[in-house]
Amino acid sequence: MNKLMSILVLSLLFISTGHTKEIKIGVVMPMSGPIGGFGQHAVKGLNLAHSLNPKLKNGDTVKVILLDNKSDKIESANAATKLISSDKVSAIIGALTSTNTMALTKIADDAKVPVVAPVATNPLVTKNRTFISRVCFNDNFQGDVAANFVFNDLKFKNVVVITDVKNDYSIGISKVFKTKFKAMGGKILKVMQINQGDSDFKAMLSNIKKLKPELVFIPFYSAEVALIAKQANQLGIKTKFLGTDGMAGDKVFFEVGGKAVEGFYGTNLFSPDAPKTTQASKDFDKAFRAKYKEAPHPFGVLSAESYNVILSAMNKCDDPTDTKCVNKNIRATKDFQGVSGIISLNEKGDAVRSAVIETIKDGKSVYLKTVNP
Amino acid sequence: MDILNFIQQVVNGISVGSMYALIAIGYTMVYGVLRLINFAHGEIMMVGAFAAFMAMGVWGLPLFIAIIIAISFAILTGVLTDKIAYKPLRSAPRISLLITAIGVSFFLQNTINVFVGGTARSFPVAPFFDKVITINSIVFTPTLIIVPVITLSLLAILLFVLHKTKYGMAIRALAFDIKTVSLMGVNSNQIISLVFVIGSSLAAVGGIFWALSYPILTPYIGIMIGLKAFAAAVLGGIGSVSGALIGGFILGFAEVMFVAFYPEAGGYRDAIAFIFLILVLLVKPTGIMGINFEKSRF
Questions:
Q1: Rounded to the nearest 10 degrees, what angle do helices B41-53 and B221-236 cross at?
Q2: Which partner from A34, A321, A346, B83 sits 20 to 30 angstroms from B117, CA to CA?
């Protein structure tokens, strides 16, 4: 009797889902660990994008499978393997940041499953990878924007650079910044190193205090920046600081940084206060504020953008599970009216888009200006 | 490097070193009695810090009560760990106990990850701890003054308990030979629990002051601090509580001075701590205050 019932239930299930297919998109995000805060923000945007567009044009429903990479490289690679071989996803969004995305690019590339990275800006992410694209700019551009801002807008000539040597993103952008800033005629007083996860920076900061630079360039993530800001403040360092898009991503930056991060500058991928260039971005902004009662976070917006770019590519294919066709169309994205602005992908799979510069005021990121490529 | 910067770096070294020392003492206590390198010690510290975070950040209790709650939680974790994971292995080979300790450490990290969440939390720091004292442009933070005082007084209390009280005598006796002492009518499991109570309380205090100095909490903060404190304990001569203190300070100084002189190679900071440990052990395999386990304890 039981057996009969289960056969009946199973067959009913088949009948009800028989007509439209279910398309799976895998998502790898840091939901816990040191940069878990980044992932939390990213998923908010992604969930909103999914609830706004849960279906493809042909009626297929999209299922999002979220895996936590615990902010870790190896876990990112494992997650990608699982999504590809066991869940059989048609595309992957993630793994948000550079180091973790680079851990899964080879796996996805070999399996010919397209990956769209929301905010992985290291130049190497898409290098020689046919199936890896991103909706953010790469750090050759961001480093250039940062160097330009320091030299031409702030008119500072003496800079100290701190690199997080455990973080591919930080290594990449430091290198670009140094080269560009020196080429402009600026002086790099010293390059110092930290490790992601370090807590005590007083020894390094005491040295910076003595060097008296006009600005310290700190291209790494929220936790380390916040601790550096706090300890620099305790040591009485009055120098300006310039961070990058990873700086204000996690709310611990503001909670721990408090008064110490006031006046910090930061380059960023997106600012909710920048003039909006597309109708989609206006609508998304409204929906985001209505759902979460807060301003859209850059990581959330770009994760939503990754989802939309994949969906738009799938809509152009007869079979949305044909990963080669989807990838071809992702790469062919031109003048896409996205939720973060207008984006086009170049032949390498990198988005060509503008950057914003912000400053921290009253515990918030405040928009200063937009820099176009 | 000018003299003022150097003095500032010495101050920075004391600040880091006293933190390592505080945590290393707990490591050495457990080792002295059970010959167990309790790799879960860093995690017990993390549990203490999270308990204090909950008490202050979520329930809004004052620091003093938060410290009591943190210590209680840490003691509970430490004693339960011993009862559940270590006690059944008392007569098993040492290596089984060591592997169990590593397992316990992962278990605690993941438990906190599941129940509290794995994202970075900001530890609520009272404004008092943000004030600094500046003398001749040398900057002192409040924790810098409080932590060494607490470390030294806890060490004094610990030495008093170990050498002047009946329970202390039992602990030292147990450290020599558990079987014989049990035959003499001492309840060895009770005394071992006491050791875990002391070790876990020290870890909790260490965790709170770590969080007050570096107010970002994740379930994984215990890993590196635990390893450094372990290195400090070995450097000072594992099993010796005063050795742990000395080891902690030396390790803190070594790290800070390395970064002070070579900030451009700061990425090797952690490596330096362990290279230093290896060098000391090459010259003096039992550590600086290395004790001869045939003759004395602690």
A1: 130
A2: B83
Report CA dihedral (A208, A212, A217, A223) to the nearest 10 degrees: 40
Model confidence pLDDT, tens digit, residues A46-73:
999 999 999 998 889 999 999 999 888 9
A93 with A118: CB under 8 angstroms? yes
| Contact: B256, A202; criterion CB under 8 Å | yes
CB contact A33 to B (< 8 Å): yes
The domain made up of A2-137+277-354 is a member of CATH 3.40.30.10: no
CB-closest option in A31, A165, A227 to B216: A227
Nearest by CB to B264, from A192, A255, A256: name it. Answer: A192
B-interface mutation test, from A69, A207, A216, A259, most B Cβ less than 10 A away: A207
- What value does the mean pLDDT take over residues A228-248? 92
Nearest to A250 among B120, B132, B263 (CB): B120
Tokens standing for residue A275: 């003039």
**A27 forms bridges with which residues in the sheet?**
A66, A93
| CATH superfamily name and code, A140-268 | Response regulator (3.40.50.2300)
Question: For residues A74 and A84, what is the distance between their CA atoms, to the nearest angstrom?
Answer: 16
Whole-number Å distance between alpha carbons of B207 and A281? 45
Q: What is the mean pLDDT of residues A269-283?
A: 90
Q: What are phi and psi of A97, to 5 degrees?
A: -95, 170
3-state secondary structure of A355: strand
Q: What is the full DSSP assignment across B57-111?
A: IIS---HHHHHHHHHHHHHHHHHHHIIIIIGGGTTS-HHHHHHHHHHHHHHHHHH
Whether B262 has its CB under 8 Å from any CB of chain A: the answer is: no
pLDDT at A19: 63
Are B259 and A204 in contact (CB < 8 Å)?
A: yes
Binary contact (A234, B139; C-beta < 8 A): yes
B129, amino acid identity: F
Q: Where are the beta strands (DSSP E) in chain B?
A: 121-122, 133-135, 138-140, 216-217
CA distance A173 to A221: 13
Q: For residue B13, list chain A residues with Cβ-Cβ distance below 8 A.
A: 203
Q: Is residue A322 classed as helix, strand or coil in its secondary structure?
A: coil
The alpha-carbon gap from B80 to the nearest alpha carbon of chain A, in Å, equals: 26
Half-sphere exposure of B73 (CA within 13 A, CB side): 25
| pLDDT the model gives residue B277 | 85
Q: Identify the closest residue of chain B to A208 by CA–CA distance.
A: B263
- ipTM reported for the complex, 2 dp: 0.89
Identical fold for domains A2-137+277-354 and A140-268, yes or no, is yes
In the prediction, which pLDDT does A312 show?
Answer: 93
Interface of B with A in 49-108 (CB under 8 A): none
Domain residue ranges of chain A, discontinuous segments joined by + = 2-137+277-354, 140-268
